[in-house]
Specification:
two-stranded antiparallel sheet; mainly beta
Length: 235
């Protein structure tokens, strides 16, 4: 937005002031929002929106959460998960033997397919760490070779092991669509997912989780169905 080179993703920030005799361009108040987007799918400078803060899962137990595979039933489009990869998507997590150089503690493994069966497997590329000592449900994910400052937020908003579901957001939604709010669709600060322990879709359970997302202020129209049929059951 300021004309600086961007390595991975642009910074999102807001400045406000009552009066000042010297200020740069981003400090100027305008009746019309600036048209330069900060990141893919994000709001423009000056577009504050009406997105309420979301809440994460209270008493989140990471060890329980990563103890088993998660099948994605619905997900929003992101740069790394386009709609054509909405087939047989799953995620699994495990503790690293030791903390990495950049402080990551969790191995992340994501898998998706295209309609013709073309696989997209993250292998051992991705890692994660908890980012808030006061909120263990806030994590961040990144390629293992990047510092944690470059990691993207991964927030567990809802999680129930007994019922076998989780609702995941790529951080705080900040784009007001008029039907709720959403995160971006780039790399970081992006995405919304419905996870279930069972690969078979339970429509009643999925609709309940969609309701929970809507109650948190999300525009759930961004969620697309993942086809979990005709997938290897031992995936």
């Amino acid at each position: 937005a300021d004309g600086c080179p961007t390595a991975v993703t642009d910074l999102t920030y807001k400045e406000s002031f009552n009066s000042c005799s010297q200020h740069d361009d981003v400090c100027v108040a305008s009746a019309q929002p600036a048209q330069t987007a900060l990141r893919g799918g994000s709001k423009a400078v000056g577009d504050v929106g009406e997105c309420k803060p979301v809440s994460t899962k209270a008493g989140f137990d990471l060890d329980s959460y990563i103890n088993g595979k998660w099948y994605i039933q619905e997900q929003a489009v992101t740069k790394y998960l386009p709609e054509e990869q909405n087939f047989c998507v799953y995620a699994e997590y495990s503790k690293l033997d030791k903390k990495s150089f950049w402080g990551y503690t969790i191995q992340v493994h994501n898998y998706a397919q295209e309609a013709d069966g073309t696989p997209h497997d993250s292998g051992d590329l991705l890692v994660a760490k908890q980012t808030d000592d006061n909120d263990p449900a806030k994590l961040a994910v990144s390629p293992y070779f990047l510092p944690s400052l470059a990691a993207g937020p991964y927030w567990v908003l809802e999680y129930d092991e007994a019922l076998g579901y989780a609702l995941i957001s790529g951080g705080q939604p900040d784009i007001d669509t008029g039907n709720g709010c959403k995160c971006g669709d780039g790399v970081n600060d992006s995405g919304l997912w419905i996870f279930t322990r069972s690969q078979d879709r339970d429509e009643g359970l999925v609709q309940m989780i969609r309701g929970k997302a809507e109650a948190q202020g999300f525009d759930i129209s961004v969620l697309n169905t993942v086809d979990q049929t005709n997938c290897a059951k031992d995936m």
